[in-house]
Amino acid sequence: MTASAIRSNDLTFRFGAVEAVRNVTLDVPSGKVFGFLGPNGAGKTTTIRLLLGLLEPTCGTAEVLGLDTRHDAAAIRERTGALLEFPGLYERLSAEDNLDFYLRVWRWSRDARRERIRELLSHLGLWDRRGDLVATWSAGMKQKLAVARALVHRPQLLFLDEPSAGLDLVATRALREDIRLLVEREGTTVFLTSHSLDEVEELCSSVAVILQGRIVAQGTLDELCARAHDSIVVIEGSGFTPEIVRDVREHCTVAAVEADRERLNVRVRPGSTAAAIVSLLVYAGATITEVRSVHPSFEQVYLDLVEADP
Amino acid sequence: MIGDILTVMWKDWRELVFHRASLRGTLASAAVVIILLGLVFPLRIGGAWLGSPMYLVYWGWVPSMLVSTLIADSFAGERERHTLETLLASRLGDGAILLGKIGASVVYGCAITFALLGAGLVTVNVAHWAGQPAGYTPFVTAAAVSITLLLSVATAAVGALASLHAATVRQAQQTLNVVLMTAGLLPFLLIDLLPSEMRAPLVDWAARVDPALWLIGGSLLMAGVDVTLLRLVSRRFQRGKLLVD
């Protein structure tokens, strides 16, 4: 296995006048969970389609598991599994038949198919309803089955497009645990898109953020938080009157302030330090007991990126 | 490749059989056809049902009708039910998906048609027993088999073409119906358009040609049409285009 499961260079896809994906350069490490984030319509699904070789890029290149997406698309699909925008289940078939079909597609023997289906459905608590038509199932059960369908053949690389959509809290937690175990035990690489930043923080070793088809940030979560333009200074003490808070807010080094009686969260602009603000507070008569600098949360970093995009 | 084609066929049949509403409709239409062509017609027509080339027209119409009900659903149905992209993202090759879909429809159409031929044979023998078992003449047998197979493939290929880029099954079915109707009526229209001084000698010539030659020539022509249509549908099957559509 290569060190990078996915490597793309200036990957671009135009559809008519629309540039759905623009110069996407990605480096996804093997055996990890990689988060691919962005608002709806940012180009996440199109990027996955390009990486699976379902669409041919207008320009740029991509290698998935060391294989070129233009020339080796079939070999890529042989080694990958995908849960895409929709669950992709045959609702007129039973759960057992859905899994059986995809195991037949991957040429598993009859005994191995039977064993794998029992293993997966039992693990997901769906074994008792294995013979029911999927159409009669709840959305959450279908989503669980869809995830099982994507990984049923033990792929080296798994694309999961919002896998926890429609799942309840317990099922979401179980899914996260399953993804973690899949990566730890089987060394599978997971390319995960999700709107749940909790999920991303819990599972992903590195992420990329895509906006309007362009990658606007990429790296580990810590790197992204550290790279954030603004840093946050937490000042604890007393005497933070509304007038003092107003003066802090209007200070030229300050981007934003959240305040309560004994605590100020001050977002300072790039290149600025807390010294000027501390001086201002002391001069105005506030008492300071502690000053510490923290990086913004990943959620804040992500929201800043999305909101900064024109 | 063969294994992959059979896998796709297995899935399509399984869906047909397990979907109760679809199964009810399929069984109902199959029952009507079986009662008419396996029972009523052979019962009324008797021994001529097994030997007269006149009734071959049924063996062209029946498989086309049966195949068209299934093939329209092949890609448009997967698209409508949001399963197409997942199927395309699997390891299955283009040829396996396409031939699996076409194969499922063709085998379904041919199986029921051959069952009808068998039912007609039994009905005639039971109802019109002439002291010894009667069978289809070799000409009728060969013609029925070749017409059934060749027209099934042609219908399936045209249906797959219609279904590939149709947004819904209904749209695919409508397109396919128009094409089949046009193809069925075109020969009559062309003959009708001929000047009467040409029509009479042509009909006279056609009547004098050995039926076996008609069968061989027609089958070769139809086989050519089938190959052309299969090549066309194979060229039109592009994963990216199916998704973008």
Please describe what this structure looks like.
Chain A has about 300 residues and is an alpha/beta fold. Chain A is about 35% helix and about 30% strand. In chain A, the strands form 3 sheets. A 6-stranded mixed β-sheet of chain A has the order 6-7-8-3-9-10, sandwiched between helices. Chain A has a 4-stranded antiparallel β-sheet with strand order 2-1-4-5, with helices on one face. In chain A, strands 12-13-11-14 form a 4-stranded antiparallel β-sheet, with helices on one face. In chain A, a hairpin with a 2-residue loop joins β1 and β2. Chain A is elongated, with a radius of gyration of 24 Å. The mean pLDDT of chain B is about 90. Classes of the chains: A alpha/beta (about 300), B mainly alpha (about 240). At the A-B interface, α2 and α3 of A face α1, α6 and α12 of B.
Which keywords apply here?
heterodimer; A: about 300 residues; alpha/beta; 4-stranded antiparallel beta sheet; 11 helices; B: about 240 residues; mainly alpha; 12 helices
Low-confidence stretches of chain B at least 5 residues in length (pLDDT < 50)? none
Cα radius of gyration of chain A in angstroms: 24 Å
Number of DSSP E strands of chain A: 14
Question: What's the gyration radius of chain B in Å?
Answer: 20 Å
Average pLDDT of chain A, to the nearest integer? Answer: 88
Main sheet overview of chain B: none
State the oligomer: heterodimer
Q: Approximately what portion of the residues of chain B adopt beta-strand conformation?
A: under 5%
H-E order of chain B? HHHHHHHHHHHH
